[in-house]
Amino acid sequence: MPASRSLSRRMFAKAGGAALAGAGIAAVPSRASAAVQSAPLRPPLRARQTTASAQPGGKWYPDGSPRRFPGLTFTTPVASGAFKDALTQVRDKIRQAPLGALFATLPHDTYHATILEGPVDQPRSATTWPKDLPIDTPLDDVLAAFLDKLRGSSLTAPRTLTFTPREVNDITKPNKVFSIKLQPDAATATALASFRAALGSLLQIPAPTSYDFHVTVGYRLYTNTEDEVARLQAWRTECLQLMPPTVTLSGCQFTVFDNMTGFPVVRDL
């Protein structure tokens, strides 16, 4: 195994993430600042089990700060407007409630919908790694290989992507992220299916024919009790009601990440 197979701090900074790559990573607020709790949580966090997201190998520490989880991905950003405002309201609802302590929330400037998932440094699998690269290839080299292929290609992303917010993920289940599921209209579904297939073929990475598009606002850190299920279900309804009837996103960006609090753009497609 190479000394370091992850996306190096140098390469991450070169890609545009200098402010995120050092010790001063712009982390999500700690538990103390993330939630203004009007009543103590019962049972307290120390008496609860952590979820996979907050365990070694996950994306978060139990206190809500981000673990290093380097990788590459293709996303469409959520621009300023009604949808972003609604997502921020959802985030604030989480932070201001006692049950918000069960979640780590994301900075509003990271909101995006994933178009195609790229490789992450760990865990690595032959089924998700680029087929034309050895599985022990440093992530820096994967990034460089992807850029070379993209520069030599005329592939461009659909400009207009129209979705309907259809559901809030089932946050009563401990390993479900707090996300808004998006249903593409017919034209968007066709355009994205074609683009995902072409991008996957170009980069030799998987591009499943079915995919649940979504925007994530938070991750579960701790399990809930049975008594809390009704409140979490009510959140799902309340948060969906905040969403605009339709959402328009645009284009696709090749981004890198060192953790879940920043996605510097490497190339617009």
- CATH names the topology as Cyclic Phosphodiesterase, Chain: A
Proportion of residues in β-strands: 15-25%
- The CATH architecture can be named as Alpha-Beta Complex
How much helix is in the residues? 25-40%
Counted up, domains total 1
The named CATH superfamily: Cyclic phosphodiesterase
Give a verbal description of the structure.
- The chain is α+β, with helices and mostly antiparallel strands and 269 residues long.
- It has one domain: Cyclic phosphodiesterase (Cyclic Phosphodiesterase, Chain: A), CATH 3.90.1140.10.
- The chain is 29% helix and 20% strand.
- The chain has six helices and nine strands.
- The strands form two sheets. The chain has a five-stranded antiparallel β-sheet with strand order 2-6-5-4-7. Strands 3-1-8-9 form a four-stranded antiparallel β-sheet.
- The longest helix has 18 residues.
- The two termini are 33 Å apart.
